[in-house]
Write a structure and sequence with these properties.
With 147 residues, this protein is an alpha+beta fold. It has a single domain, classed as Aminopeptidase, CATH 3.40.630.30. It is 29% helix and 33% strand. The protein contains 4 helices and 8 strands; from the N terminus they run E-H-H-E-E-E-H-E-H-E-E-E. A hairpin with a 2-residue loop joins strand 7 and strand 8. InterPro entries: Acyl_CoA_acyltransferase, GNAT_dom.
């Protein structure tokens, strides 16, 4: 797998189109959740994705900084699921954050059904479950980026 991470300002229009296509396919169409997928956060974010040996876009997440470090829009393209790529993607995101934005906690707004998935990476719940776009979410934090 090839790992690519670029700030929005470095993306080509083709790369941005590929990542938006995947995000809309998963978060709007597949999850049947009509909402504004394109937002201002994209403009300040680093966009990390995985490509297979043939250059196919297979997984994606974006990383951004506010008061704390965040990542989100975590996805694996439908045809590539059940291959451990979600784990690989989160490991790559955390490695990138540790290298480029260390010594800060990482906070995510995870879909509630993925709480155990993120817990295996050291994330702990810091909120009650809440609805975001009619999908149950929970805020989780990883403090071990502080070393």
């Amino acid at each position: 797998m090839k790992v690519i991470c670029k700030h929005f300002s470095e993306l080509t229009t083709t790369e941005y189109h590929r990542l938006l296509t995947a995000r809309v396919a998963v978060f709007v169409v597949e999850q049947e959740c009509p909402y504004q997928e394109v937002d201002r956060t994209d403009l300040e974010a680093w966009h990390l994705w995985l490509e297979d040996e043939e250059g196919h876009f297979v997984a994606y997440a974006r990383i951004y900084q506010e008061a704390t470090i965040h990542f989100g829009r975590v996805l694996v393209v439908k045809e590539y699921r059940k291959q451990g790529l979600g784990n690989l993607l989160v490991e790559e995101v955390l490695t990138w954050i540790h290298r480029h934005l260390p010594k800060q906690p990482i906070v995510i707004g995870a879909q509630a059904h993925l709480q155990a998935f993120y817990a295996q990476f050291g994330f702990e719940p810091v909120s009650e479950t809440y609805l975001e776009d009619d999908i149950p979410h929970i805020d989780m934090e990883k403090k071990t980026n502080l070393s």
